[in-house]
Design goal:
This protein is α/β, with parallel strands linked by helices. It has helices at about 10, 35-40, 80-95, 115-120, 140-145, 160-170, 225-245, 245-290; strands spanning about 15-20, 45-50, 65, 75, 100-110, 125-130, 150, 205, 215. Mean pLDDT is about 90; it is low at about 1-10. Bound molecules: S-adenosylmethionine.
Length: about 290
């Protein structure tokens, strides 16, 4: 039986996720490797799995039953799930926990996971994730525990575990010290409400499989930081505008005043240049008349 460990001061200080699942062996899975795995080993974040089946009430360790009203598939039982959720959240709210907990049921019906929600969860000390299986869970558990429903996207997974892994990965990489020196979250997709600009690396000229030479945009080789920054921003804006109108609309609305002011500055500069030119022309023609 997998039981969550009670938090001591050391564990309570790090971002902690508890996963309620019928398949605890799926964790840490990919989260045990690379940056997340290293951070897990170094105690930057903590993961606890809770086997829902260990809260079953009969000798067959039953966790599901047929849906009332008929229909295909099975539904996870409210009594079993409720006991598991209560045990896990009581530990969080106990003397070792801070009480700052979000209890989430991974569900295709939920609020779509995005970088805003990831940022919120990444600073929530304790996150509890309930992974459904079968046709899902009894609705009364969601109501009784006020579960927050979060979806990975508009598609149906066979269980909440892959969604939990993705959510945890996104939160872990935002924990202080997890990303390497060279990587920063600041300019990544969604951080500024934009998709990310394109990346290039060596070789500067690369011939693809069809014999076509593909070059790196000149500006990236210029060493001119301000021009590189401006190019990247323009590319991020171009790509977001073309691909994701729903992201572009709020970004454009937030920047409209700034762009209008810049356009006005350009118009003034152009007018002044034209006036300067006209004055110079007039002076020249005056010289000629006098001459
Ligand atoms: C086969 S699905 C149940 C699908 C459900 N009958 C429906 O049509 O909405 C089993 C479990 O996978 C998880 N799941 C499936 N799709 C998901 C998604 N897009 N995001 C998050 N969790 C998902 C949920 O925990 C769900 O209880």
């Amino acid at each position: 039986m997998t039981q969550p460990v009670r938090h001591d001061a050391a564990t309570a200080a790090v971002w902690t996720v508890r996963v309620l699942t019928l398949f605890p062996e799926m964790f840490p899975g990919p989260l045990g490797l690379s940056l997340a795995g290293k951070a897990l080993k170094n105690g930057v974040w903590a993961l606890e799995t809770v086997d829902i089946r260990s809260y079953a009430r009969d000798k067959h360790r039953t966790v599901d039953d047929a849906p009332f009203g008929g229909g295909p598939g099975m539904v996870m039982r409210p009594d079993v799930l409720s006991d598991a959720i209560t045990a896990v959240t009581e530990i969080t709210a106990g003397p070792g926990g801070s009480g700052q907990t979000r209890v989430i049921y991974l569900s295709p019906r939920g609020r779509r996971l995005d970088q805003y929600l990831v940022r919120e969860l990444a600073v929530t000390p304790f996150v509890v994730l309930l992974c459904g299986r079968y046709e899902g869970i009894d609705e009364r558990v969601i109501e009784a525990h006020g579960l927050e429903e979060v979806s990975l996207g508009d598609f149906v997974l066979s269980g909440g575990e892959p969604a939990a892994l993705a959510l945890i990965d996104a939160c872990v990489r935002l924990q202080p010290g997890v990303m390497g020196n060279g990587e920063t979250a600041g300019e990544e997709s969604f951080e500024r409400g934009l998709l990310e600009y394109p990346h290039y690396t060596r070789p500067a000229s690369w011939v693809d499989g069809r014999g076509c030479a593909r070059l790196v945009p000149e500006v990236l080789l210029s060493g001119h930081h301000e021009k590189v920054r401006a190019w990247r921003l323009a590319e991020a804006e171009r790509i977001t505008r073309a691909r994701r109108p729903e992201l572009w609309a709020p970004y454009a609305a937030a920047h409209r005043d700034e762009w209008d002011r810049e356009a006005e500055r350009c118009r003034r500069r152009r007018r002044n240049t034209e006036l300067d030119g006209m004055t110079a022309d007039a002076a020249r023609s005056g010289d000629q008349v006098e001459g």
